[in-house]
């Protein structure tokens, strides 16, 4: 009887070890697949610069147009039709109406942000609802640890690590917008089967600074 129990325990242990090995192999395959995707995406990397004419009056842009954060003072700027107000957002200068493109943004140290792409005809005045039907394809962070994809409807995201740098890939013809955690080589979210008919712009929303808690800038970084 004892021998049978020992044999059963040995068989169960062997089975558990096999399961763990398979799970490890699956994880490694997924990582290699994601790394391959990111390598492919990097071929389509573009040099994005922020457009000051679209920036909300409280946003502060760096001189090189690669960083944006929210300040405490509303600047006296011309109220142009292309300027966001009251949404704390800014677009990239680069416009895309075909092909594929990819860019990366550092989000390190921030508690709130929105990133993605938007179509040219979006509403930039008044209340903004970030969702594909209104021309926004974005992911967002709220309260330091609440990630979501701003889809129709919104989708809560459970991420195993906190992204420090986010990659955004768009395939215009395929109607695809993908978001990746660059450092962990993991997929965040994808909008698929979208129908793009207008020009698309990179979109950056650093959110309010909340008394310094969210004062770090969003930084457009070179793709390695």
TrEMBL record:
Residues 28-223 form the B30.2/SPRY domain. SUPFAM superfamilies: Concanavalin A-like lectins/glucanases. PROSITE patterns: B302_SPRY. Transmembrane segments: none annotated. Residues 1-39 form a coiled coil. This is B30.2/SPRY domain-containing protein. Keywords: Coiled coil. It comes from the Eukaryota. SMART domains: PRY, SPRY. The lineage of its organism: Eukaryota, Metazoa, Chordata, Craniata, Vertebrata. InterPro entries: B30.2/SPRY, B30.2/SPRY_sf, Butyrophylin_SPRY, ConA-like_dom_sf, PRY, SPRY_dom, TRIM/RBCC, TRIM8/14/16/25/29/45/65_CC. The keyword rRNA processing does not apply.
């Amino acid at each position: 009887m004892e021998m049978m129990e020992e044999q059963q325990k040995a068989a169960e242990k062997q089975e558990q070890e096999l399961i763990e090995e398979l799970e490890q192999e699956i994880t490694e395959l997924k990582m290699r697949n994601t790394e391959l995707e990111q390598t492919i995406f990097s071929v389509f990397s573009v040099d994005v610069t922020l457009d000051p004419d679209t920036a909300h009056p409280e946003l502060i842009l760096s001189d090189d147009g690669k960083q944006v954060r929210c300040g405490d003072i509303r600047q006296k700027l011309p109220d142009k039709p292309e300027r966001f107000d009251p949404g704390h957002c800014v677009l990239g200068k680069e416009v895309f109406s075909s092909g594929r493109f990819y860019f990366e943004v550092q989000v390190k140290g921030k508690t709130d942000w929105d990133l993605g792409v938007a179509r040219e005809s979006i509403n930039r005045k008044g209340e903004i609802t970030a969702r594909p039907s209104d021309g926004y394809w974005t992911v967002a962070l709220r309260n330091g640890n609440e990630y979501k994809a701003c889809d129709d409807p919104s989708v809560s995201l459970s991420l195993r690590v906190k992204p420090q740098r986010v990659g955004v890939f768009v395939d215009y013809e395929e109607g695809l917008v993908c978001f990746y955690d660059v450092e962990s080589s993991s997929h965040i979210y994808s909008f698929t089967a979208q129908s793009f008919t207008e020009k698309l712009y990179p979109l950056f929303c650093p959110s309010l600074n909340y008394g310094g808690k969210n004062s770090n800038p969003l930084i457009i970084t070179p793709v390695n």
